[in-house]
Design brief:
Layout lengths: L3 H4 L6 H6 L25 H6 L4 H9 L11 H21 L6 H30 L1
Helix pairs in contact: 5-6
Pfam families: Type_III_YscX
Length: about 130
C-alpha cells in the first residue's frame, strides 16, 4: 500500500506533480527530420471555435472608425472640439444660401447641443459620486 505521507513530501517538483512520474523508457525521437512541437505554431481549438468570422463581427469591425489623432479622446479636448464644431455649424447655418440644406446643419448643431448637455449631466453625476 502506498504511503499517504509520501504524497505530501517536499522533494517533488511542480512538473512531477502536474505531469506525474516520468517513465524510464521515454526517449526522444531519433529522426532529425521531424518537426518538434515547439516549432509548430500552437493553435487553440477554443480560439478557432469562438473566433470564427461571422457577419455580426464583420459589421461591428466595419463600423469602428480608426482614430488618427488620439488626443481628441481626452475629455477636455473632446468637449472643446464639440463646442467649436457646434459654433461652426450654427455660423454655417446662418450663412447658408438657398442652395444649401440649412435644416441639416441646424439638426447637426442640435445634436451637438444634446451631446454637451449629456456631458454636463455626466460631470454632475461624477461630482456627486466623488462627494459621497
Amino acid at each position: 500500500m502506498a504511503d499517504p505521507i509520501k504524497f505530501f513530501s517536499f522533494d517533488r517538483g511542480i512538473e512531477q506533480i502536474f505531469q506525474g512520474e516520468l517513465k524510464a523508457d521515454a526517449r526522444l525521437p531519433q529522426q532529425r527530420g521531424t518537426v518538434l512541437p515547439s516549432q509548430n505554431p500552437a493553435t487553440q481549438h477554443l480560439d478557432k471555435v469562438v473566433r470564427t468570422p461571422n457577419l455580426e463581427s464583420h459589421l461591428l469591425n466595419s463600423l469602428q472608425t480608426p482614430v488618427d489623432d488620439k488626443t481628441i479622446l481626452i475629455p477636455n479636448v473632446y468637449r472643446s472640439l464639440i463646442t467649436e464644431s457646434r459654433k461652426a455649424l450654427r455660423k454655417s447655418a446662418k450663412k447658408a444660401g438657398p442652395w444649401t440644406n440649412k435644416k441639416v446643419l441646424e439638426e447637426a448643431a442640435e445634436l451637438l447641443d444634446g451631446e454637451e448637455d449629456l456631458m454636463d449631466l455626466l460631470t454632475t453625476y461624477r461630482n456627486t459620486l466623488h462627494k459621497a
